[in-house]
Specification:
Blueprint (H helix, E strand, L loop, with lengths): L4 E8 L5 E11 L6 E11 L10 E6 L9 E5 L1
Parallel strand pairs: 3-5
Antiparallel strand pairs: 1-2, 1-4, 2-3, 4-5
Length: about 80
């Protein structure tokens, strides 16, 4: 099965080797026919501590790195 790749914006870099990435998805509401924006936060592994708040990044699924980290930063 292929690994998922998501795009988002770094919202926190306070932890060592970890960034919090907010990923937004848009979809049309089935009844209201209105475009809805939903966002979800993912914790991703950042080995070099290279990414700062506000950076647009792509993240990819990986094996669990810790209790909450299941993603790695792929590129900016």
């Amino acid at each position: 099965m292929p690994k998922r790749i998501l795009s988002g914006v770094v919202t926190s870099d306070a932890n060592a080797q970890t960034v919090t990435v907010s990923v937004e998805r848009r979809f049309t509401h089935p009844v209201l026919k209105k475009t809805i924006r939903k966002s979800k936060k993912y914790r991703a592994h950042d080995e070099q501590n290279a990414f700062k708040v506000g950076d647009a990044v792509r993240i990819i699924e990986c094996a669990p790195k810790s209790k909450t980290k299941r993603w790695e930063v792929l590129e900016a």
